[in-house]
């Protein structure tokens, strides 16, 4: 990767306005109107920079479709259901989910599909993938989705929402910033003055963090939107992402290009910059607005609870030996707890209106606020 137009623009902004907070740098890298990573390309698959679970296997989307069906029944089988996906990639997950839902005509007929996508390249891919689907609409924000009973799916959505990073110094917590070093390169620094009374807001585990520790946090705006929607209008949301179960200190800000980690400050706009999701913070914010929280559990546990072993066996029984081997490898990648698997790194959190006391795959575990 070489110097990008966005790198030059960021340097100009820093020179004119001073060091840039990490959240603003991340926002520009991903969403700059001309050079942002998520407004200019299809980042998925072998030719892209990373692969998501729906691209690994059709089983992932199919099981999320069947999970949605079970929630719809718990909701009392409403005659209109808004199935909303946030950051839907190429439309693969929705296509697989809808194929599974065709076996339930009453539900399938009730569906209105809403795709929340800002990337024009991916939106075109989604339109092609889902060209035969009726009652489907695209939106720039969930705020634009009409009211009504909803099931919301968010796979690898929260990890790209900008984070604030705070660094502990002797005299308090300072906002982490991006600045320019003596050689003209971007580097991390810290605001000159500490953020007043920031330690009062910290989770207990973080208050004892040593000098030099980094703490990351995201504003609660997005999770509160989802939680408020399902609480007030009926329904549930399923959040699947990589992250940690408990709020704690640690620097997880990273960049990925061509399926490998790279320096997040090297070529802004040309790599995917993300940070791990704090599931305890998500759960706390959802509960604060009166929604019910389910889980979180690991992705491996969730998929096994909703039937991935049975589905894989059924697909393999009908497949050629080569295809059966591919299915087995995909199953392992989605559920395995090893370094090459997504089973333990990814977590699954459910949020619902309070009357839904149990949700498939999540219901018999303790609430996320107490997870460890």
From TrEMBL:
It comes from the Bacteria. InterPro entries: NDUFAF7, NDUFAF7_sf, SAM-dependent_MTases_sf. Gene3D superfamilies: 3.40.50.12710. The keyword Ribonucleoprotein does not apply. Pfam families: Methyltransf_28. GO terms for molecular function: protein-arginine omega-N symmetric methyltransferase activity. One of its GO terms (biological process) is methylation. SUPFAM superfamilies: S-adenosyl-L-methionine-dependent methyltransferases (SSF53335). Keywords: Methyltransferase, Transferase. This is ATP synthase subunit beta. It comes from Bradyrhizobium neotropicale.
